[in-house]
């Protein structure tokens, strides 16, 4: 027994490793959340930050399904929406102040959202988790349509097209936060983002969390070590619904309104894109994706009417060429730099970056010119003093030449890499 | 350790018109090491799939330690103390070696679908996992992703996952297929150690392994058992010779 | 009586259109294992291509050319997109087509604008064919019926009577075996994907002016086609046909029923003034396919005709 205990100690990560890999990132994350208000962010920035927090929790909950359990859902917003709707109702009960509701702090909304999301997951997951893979994906889509359609039908529950709004200041002060000013809401969101992220990280460390990964890798083998893969999926589905509901509760306080639109396929697709672009194989991937996508969604739309198209292009590009997403690129780069191999790859990276930049120039020109042409207002795309009219030869040179050059460079780089590896 | 660990009663399985298993009767005593041999396509793997619940029998019954298991799901059968390995390595590819074995340990230690415990704090799970890794000789590779293991180590991992749950009845489907001689020797030693005090049912093409390991042997030809007996009896059985006549004895030939 | 007959006719037409879409999807899915999320986007492309072609020529040319163009677009997508992500499994393929649907939506908005285009029924067919119970029935709808039946017969003939059909049928039941027959599998995949998309395009050509041609038509049609395929049983053409007709009839007849839930369940004490009681069957029509989906899956997870666990 004695040497068994020593091997056990050897296998488990040391205290220092655990601290470095698990505790330290959490402390840094908490610190980052705490430091942000010191910079005196504007109202717009605060709102953006708050939405980032909501989307971080939402994207991570989505990835409990796709990344961790291999379940592709097209209707994950249903659980955020139902959790959020429940919270909006609770907030209104609190504002009415009748019975025990008067004593409930608005600060606790995400807990209610969590419960409602879990319940929704438990009810809807029952018929939908009987199939895995592609059928599961299609069923999730059908269920989302059904719930969204029901949302438009039952006005007393969902408020019809106008939705249901609530007042976040309706309840008692809690921890010195009235939740009136945006700064208060920021602290509220920061607290629950932290809770959600830590909670979902902890889930990956539980037996069920590990079994969900095993079920993703090899559902058949799971059956032969004593587990029912359907049951594993169902339980994971409930938790994913619950954490989405948590995000719903955060959103209910930030935006003070929920509409049936929140249940629909549109936000479900958006979170799928955010999580995937971030990188579903890494725990931190969806966090990065949520931050980038929220930022793009709020800022890029000011610059260009074609931002949805850029988003789609980016998503397809990631699916085709960078399946590990932003996190994969970040960690891969870090590995290379910390491994001291930067010099070896610097040349090919420069070529790649140049190729990508050229293709981006071409694509952006094409999209921008196309949008101005289709609007029909006679506007002309004028970058850097150039006037790129859709009919002029210059425009098409700017579209075709960089594209061809970029494609050539990328192909060259890929070929060179193949030669190195083989 | 008396009585039957595994009992097959008039077991039949057809796929459409093809009758793959045509009435197999077999009793395996507790603690016995039993090998099933036979030419390719005789239905050996199908038999394993029936016993472990992967396929439902067309007719007939299977009993494990006095409980009927035919008709039950694989995970139910596994929980009742029967564990199997696969001919083609069937591991959790994106997990480390240690995580693979741990998946095999968890259910048997009562942690089922637990979502309120930190897996790192489950001391007895970690100890059992480490002990198994030590036993099978994969302890040095514990932190490697399973996909990066060389072939023979993947086969070993396959066995490690199978025995991890502490099942009393173990089914191994061609555990040494595709291994070199030295690798096969090591695998046989491992199987001997792992099946100590347990009931073992093994499908194997390597006759050296079979005659070395088995207490009794059954010969399966075209879905029927034509002979069952000790290695000596089987060696001398004219029916067995006839069945293998015209075929090369498949010593060391991978399936 | 007249509502019943009209609902029946419209339901059959809608069902056949649904089948035209879902048959292509089923073929692609059964052979390649790819659930083409963008399938309804190709349907939309069919309608828009026909609209543009009609401006330069006439409807009859568009009827033949537009589906071919859509099929070619599908082949390009398969060759240069899907094939690249194929090695990474079905979820990657599904995500690719999801992104593609997104892109096609945006591109359509650029080329044809965000509002509906005036894709009209050809003048030749723009007359009431017959009058039933005092109500006129447009000739174009019967034309849709004929085209759909013609397609049905052609598909049946192709699958049952030609060599290509035999290979496709073999691939439907034994997807892994086709490669062993010595056929060029990537080529077959490309052709099947193209053909499936062309069928969707044809549905778009004849359905775009029956319904409405706008950038939302893909998003509206897509989920319903998925429901048809799942309810029918993945990989089953017969199942897809039954499910398409079922949903077509269900939805069109529901639209014409003005009864409310209170009228039906009044005997249970449901009042017409209550919120649930006040819901009419007609307003529930868009929900019915999805309700059917959930019901079928609870009773029979493999779908009506499916026997294959995927």
From TrEMBL, chain A:
UniProt keyword annotation of Transmembrane present: yes
Location of this chain's protein in the cell: Cell membrane
Alphabetized UniProt keyword annotations: Cell membrane, Membrane, Transmembrane, Transmembrane helix
Pfam families tied to this protein: BPD_transp_2
Primary location: membrane
Alphabetized InterPro entries for the sequence: ABC_transp_permease (IPR001851), LivM-like (IPR043428)
Cellular component annotations (GO), alphabetically ordered: plasma membrane
Membrane topology, as annotated: Multi-pass membrane protein
PANTHER family according to UniProt: ABC TRANSPORTER ATP-BINDING PROTEIN (PTHR30482:SF17), HIGH-AFFINITY BRANCHED-CHAIN AMINO ACID TRANSPORT SYSTEM PERMEASE (PTHR30482)
Protein name in the entry: Branched-chain amino acid ABC transporter permease
Organism: Pseudooceanicola spongiae
UniProtKB/TrEMBL annotation, chain B:
Entry GO MF terms: ATP binding; ATP hydrolysis activity
Gene3D superfamilies to which the protein is assigned, alphabetical: P-loop containing nucleotide triphosphate hydrolases
Keywords: ATP-binding, Nucleotide-binding, Transport
GO terms for cellular component: plasma membrane
Domain ABC transporter: 6-247
Name assigned to this protein: ATP-binding cassette domain-containing protein
Source organism of this protein record: Pseudooceanicola spongiae
From TrEMBL, chain C:
Sorted UniProt keywords: Amino-acid transport, Cell membrane, Membrane, Transmembrane, Transmembrane helix, Transport
A cellular component term, taken from the record's GO annotations: plasma membrane
Transmembrane segments: 6-27, 59-82, 94-112, 139-159, 187-212, 224-247, 279-299
A Pfam cross-reference name: BPD_transp_2
Keyword Cytoplasm: no
Family according to the record: Belongs to the binding-protein-dependent transport system permease family. LivHM subfamily.
Stated name of the protein: Branched-chain amino acid ABC transporter permease
Organism: Pseudooceanicola spongiae
